[in-house]
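User: For my dataset I need records formatted as: sequence, then structure tokens, nothing else. Please produce one.
Assistant:
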Amino acid sequence: MNVSEAVEKRVSIRAFRPDPVPGAVVRDILERAAKAPSGGNLQPWRVYALSGAPLAELKAKVAANPFGETPEYDVYPPNLWDPFRTRRFQNGEDLYATIGIPREDKPARLRQLARNGEFFGAPVGVFFCLDRKLGPPQWADLGMYMQTVMLLALERGVDTCAQEYWARYPQTVGEVIGLPEDHMLFSGMAMGYRDSQAPINTLAAARDPFEVWGELRGFD
């Protein structure tokens, strides 16, 4: 699989098989991803991968606290505006349409949202953290690291779903993984093998055409 194929085929998987991912495979993906660029080569990422008993412990704690905790940052800006608001709205509609949940069925939508706390059944949960004193440029570096993880995983036949949902549980995650107090949780990621029969995995989020967001200047 070349890079173009990986970029084209990567999607967020929200229904996984329980089949375990070998620890050696997970480590290889995370280690190779450290080739991702970072300003000044700061390599700001701190990464924790959970499976087995540690993952079960975390999921149990989250299930006991469905309302979450105070997030350390806003995943989306307050009062999101267009075109971002429309994109987010449409993505949600498309997602719930795959599993037949209408907009007015709020309990069903909340149950599906809570599936995040189970990593959608994935056997591996990964957490991406960084030093609190680092700034937005290093957050961008961490995002590039995560993207590299997702593409390398796909090359190995492993699927992923990045989950900023975990920003809702900074204390719980921090306690389970033993995160130093001077570090903060940025995002989680489900990792495993997709359930190819699950309708929700048919979603490929729409992308606006180049003309909406890009320009070429000075070219022939």
